[in-house]
Design goal:
By secondary structure, this protein is an alpha/beta fold. Helix content is about 15%, strand content about 30%. The relative contact order is 0.14. Keywords: Cell projection, Cytoplasmic vesicle, Disulfide bond, Hydrolase, Lipid degradation, Lipid metabolism, Secreted.
């Protein structure tokens, strides 16, 4: 049984007979997309973990792409009806959009077991354990029977619009060069499964010989990495034409470590 942002008003904190609960089926997986408190945030979904697997994409409260201005959202690509509905309950409705995308991407939406979304963002719940990570949505039941705990909270990030799944990579860059600079570094990943766009991995002070670690939520499953493209920029013209390179770049896949 899959719960798509189960309702909070009148249900949160009620006895298990009244609301969705893991006792309702052999395997209950839940997607929480609108779990901010109803007052004052108007969240329609509940935040407590109630299934065997509880997924909190983007932290479970505010979904990327739902903060668009009202007009652009109402005159949505999918039509005025869809756009108006999204404007009123965008976060809440993301759960079924993620679910429908999950049918198309059996390897997508990996959920990382973590204490909280803040901890997930620091990267300490990366990569997936040796048993793997469950997939949010249609293929969550591949994980049936693999959980030891009563409630497993899982975190992941999604894109702002479809296609929604993202694949998480850890990128570690050691810089080389003569002098310290300010600017940013972008990295693009190339692999057997496809190539990513450029993702910013460092911004601010760029110090040669220093090592920087960042996480990329990539829009494709790169597969086996074959090449990494490294670009840096310092945003203004520097008459000394400084040079900066990468001594090493390490890429780790969240899926298989």
């Amino acid at each position: 049984f899959s719960g798509l942002d189960p309702a909070q008003p009148y249900f949160q904190g009620t006895p298990t007979e009244v609301r969705l609960d893991k006792s309702d089926a052999e395997f209950v997986d839940v997607i929480h997309t609108d779990s901010a408190p109803t007052i004052p945030n108007l969240g329609f979904g509940m935040s407590p973990a109630i299934g065997h697997l509880d997924f909190y994409p983007n932290g479970g409260k505010q979904m990327p792409g739902c903060g668009k201005n009202p007009l652009s959202q109402i005159v949505d690509l999918d039509g005025i009806w869809e756009g108006t509905r999204d404007f009123v309950a965008c976060n809440h409705l993301r759960s079924y959009k993620y679910y429908s995308d999950s049918i198309l991407y059996p390897d997508g939406f990996l959920g990382y077991s973590c204490a909280s979304y803040d901890v997930f963002e620091t990267g300490s719940c990366f990569p997936c354990p040796k048993d793997g990570c469950p997939n949010m949505g249609h293929f969550a039941d591949k994980f049936k029977g693999k959980t030891k705990n009563d409630f497993v909270k899982l975190y992941l990030n999604t894109a702002e619009a479809k296609d929604f799944p993202l694949w998480r990579y850890k990128v570690t860059v050691t810089l080389s060069g003569k002098s310290k600079l300010r600017g940013y570094v972008n990295v693009a990943l190339y692999g057997s499964g496809g190539n990513t766009r450029q993702h910013q991995v460092i911004k601010g002070s760029l110090q040669p010989d220093n090592t920087y670690t960042s996480f990329i939520d990539a829009e494709v499953n790169v597969g086996t990495v074959t090449k990494v493209k490294f670009l840096w920029n310092n945003n203004w013209i520097n008459p000394t034409f400084p040079k900066l390179g990468a001594a090493t770049i390490t890429v780790q896949s969240g899926e298989n470590g």
